[in-house]
Please model this.
Amino acid sequence: MVLIFTGNGKGKTTAAIGLCIRALGWQKKVCMIQFLKSPDFKSGEIDLLKKMGVELYQTGIGFSWKKTPQQQIESIKYAWELCRKVLLCEKYDIIILDEIINIFCMRTISVANFLNEKDLIAVLQKVKNTTDVVLTGRNASQILIDYADLVTDMKEIKHYYKKGIKAKKGLEY
Amino acid sequence: MVLIFTGNGKGKTTAAIGLCIRALGWQKKVCMIQFLKSPDFKSGEIDLLKKMGVELYQTGIGFSWKKTPQQQIESIKYAWELCRKVLLCEKYDIIILDEIINIFCMRTISVANFLNEKDLIAVLQKVKNTTDVVLTGRNASQILIDYADLVTDMKEIKHYYKKGIKAKKGLEY
Model:
């Protein structure tokens, strides 16, 4: 099945991490590929998830405004190639493609030349039917929503960012 | 700070579990009190979270329709007393009160006689200011939303339940 956590509110990646734990509790095999986030980005859960057996890849190249469009494109091409392999390898019970949905609406670079939602769906259709795939990211398009089995829109009602409070260790990262 | 995950969609408890992991990754002390869910309810994450150091209490008494209203009331009173102690003990960095919001809108029993949102807020106001508290459950009322620092409404756009697919091990439990 395909699950989508979308929307502008806090909880998308966090819920995906929660699903990792739930699945690990049943001895399931879990793989998470993070788009955009780079290994330089130290978030509390990363080492712990790896230690518990999640196969985890952070494919991003760090702060995108410091990188050329070509560098960003190469990193997304690399991540997508990795996704294809992971989705089709039949090794995992749950595969999480964190922030992949953000890729389809990036404004600084044009991803559509080499990857769009239809390409993703074409690969999802070939995934072993006992494997569940979780996609996260803002602004899921209707084509993805139509294809998915479960979609939650995580809507920001209020956020302490707006009071000037910065991202907090243990909550945002 | 106080964070609320509300709404009718999948992701509320799952995101709370994700926050546990993120916080544990920074060696923070985490306590989770689950309302309604009983120790009979075997969910994948429970043993794993305990093993990783989360202090976790499942205070529910199982399927409520098999219990008398008095039994339900007693279990909620017990859970609330535990919450008060945990919130005020100054031992934890993150406290998760899972499904507490559901308590305030139960139709089968009248909780309002001994517990309402104002009682909860009165205790939250006394919590040490470096402790973050996460409340989950459907239908958060305006009084709770106004008090919280962050609120995400997790809205169901679609769910495979509606296609007749049952709750799935590793995803729902």
In short: Chain B touches chain A through 56 residues (CB under 8 Å).
